[in-house]
Amino acid sequence: MSANLLELQGVHTHIGAYHILHGVDLQVPRGQLTLLLGRNGAGKTTTLRTIMGLWQASQGRVAFNGQDITRQHTPQIAQQGIAYVPENMGIFADLTVKENMVLAARGARTAAQIDNQRLQWIFQLFPAVEKFWNHPAGKLSGGQKQMLAVARAIVEPRELLIVDEPSKGLAPSIINNMIDAFAQLKKSGVTILLVEQNIGFAKRLGDTVAVMDNGRIVHAGTMAQLAQDEALQQRLLGLSLA
């Protein structure tokens, strides 16, 4: 079994006339939390969408669990145990929290058919999901919507969770709750790939890190190494993690 659950090798992605990814090489180690960092427009979201088959790679290879998924469609990719939470969260605002969760639970037609033990575990991770169970999802706060989006992604067991900017626009207390939840998810054996701009969030959670610039991975290593090297931080990100 490979040490890497997910690997991208020489991935190029075109969107219309635009060449966005220029040979991305990315490794996501099994059982770890990998951060994908970079300035706005570096290609981070395009990388996630390419992994999920929402945009097709024009060249290169995406492998999950050693299997080539480059040409697979999004439903096929999701069925292999990959969950994706986009930056806009993708919740159904007119449905209740409960109805959003039922839709995400493939084997359930009612809330009673969701695995109760797993649901109670999710409630412990995200108490707001239980508190607002019967409320319209569109009336939740931004932080509560983000909690619902992640909870919905893990209502079924997943090997890999991919999340695009989970802390964006959230209050510090909600960010701390999100950090605790991701730490518990990782402890449970879920491999996690996060795009993140909040450097404090990144430092507290990350095992490994890849930094993107102009559609390429320009640095890969441990989060601890990057956090300790201010010159490297300035060169790659134009800021200090201190």
Automatic annotation (TrEMBL):
What are the protein's UniProt keywords? Amino-acid transport, ATP-binding, Cell membrane, Membrane, Nucleotide-binding, Transport
Domain (ABC transporter) spans 6-239
List the InterPro entries hit by this protein, alphabetically.
AAA+_ATPase, ABC_transporter-like_ATP-bd, ABC_transporter-like_CS, BCAA_Transport_ATP-bd_LivF, P-loop_NTPase
- Superkingdom assignment: Bacteria
| UniProt GO MF annotations | ATP binding
Keyword Magnesium appears in the UniProt entry: no
Q: What PANTHER family is this protein classified in?
A: ABC TRANSPORTER ATP-BINDING PROTEIN (PTHR43820:SF2), HIGH-AFFINITY BRANCHED-CHAIN AMINO ACID TRANSPORT ATP-BINDING PROTEIN LIVF (PTHR43820)
Identification of the protein by name: ABC transporter ATP-binding protein
